[in-house]
Amino acid sequence: MFDCRALAGRLLGVSLIAGVAGLIALSATLPSMAQKEDKAGWPGPDFWHPGWMHHDRWGPRNRSPEMIARMRRHRTFMHAGAPLAYRGARSTVSMTRNVIKAGGELYSSHCASCHGDRGLGDGAAAKSVTPSPALLAHMIERPMVIDEYLLWTIFDGGKQFGTDMPAFKGTLSREQIWKIVAYMRAGFPKVDK
Ligand code: HEC
């Protein structure tokens, strides 16, 4: 006679074995997947890397020294503000066509070699500086980037934070910096040379 209970028991047994085998297989593959990713190399938070949001990676402990150097200026400004000499400084030039053009010329001769023609960090000397030159086209969109932040950054450079951003105090006047700022705020338009 057909034994319904025996069949049900057998089916249950088979599915239990399959389930356990599946779990073992899964637990064996998960760590190896993680290892594979680590072996591929994690260069530090890189916003183009699909894994950058992973929490364990985003902690300060796992940032590359370049990223830490880059963040020091931002952190200092957010916590302590600019040095007194720059505090409250505002641009003294207006965003006219001539000012933006003059700013563009200054930018091409003093900044583009590192930061690139369009502020995308891809100038000819970009690969020889540490950390890589900031992407000014993106930076300029940040709410933090007010006039005094830019004046301080461009005048004092990155020596105090261990970066290769040169100090332009002594090379450029405040007014020249404001013209460059106007050019950057205008979106790095193409300048006829
Ligand atoms: C020799 C290469 C080099 C030149 C030339 C240079 N910079 Fe930089 N700049 C850097 C590097 C590298 C960084 C990133 C490290 C840092 O923030 O100090 C940087 C950072 C900056 C920042 C800060 C960006 C941020 O994230 O807040 C600003 C603003 C800036 N540069 C503006 C300029 C301007 C304007 C000029 C021209 C007057 C200029 N730089 C010329 C290398 C350069």
SS content category: mainly alpha
Total beta strands: 0
The H-level CATH homologous superfamily of the largest domain, spelled out, is Cytochrome c-like domain
Span between termini = 97 Å
Number of helices: 8
What can you tell me about this protein's structure?
By secondary structure, the protein is an all-alpha fold. It has 2 domains: 4-57, no CATH class; 64-185, Cytochrome Bc1 Complex, Chain D, domain 2, CATH 1.10.760.10. Helix content is 52%, strand content 0%. The protein has helices spanning 4-40, 55-58, 65-80, 97-110, 112-115, 136-139, 147-156, 174-185. Helix 4 (97-110) crosses helix 8 and helix 7 (147-156) crosses helix 8 (174-185). It is elongated, with a radius of gyration of 27 Å. Mean pLDDT is 84; it is low at 32-36. The structure holds heme C. Heme C binds next to helix 3, helix 5, helix 6 and helix 7.
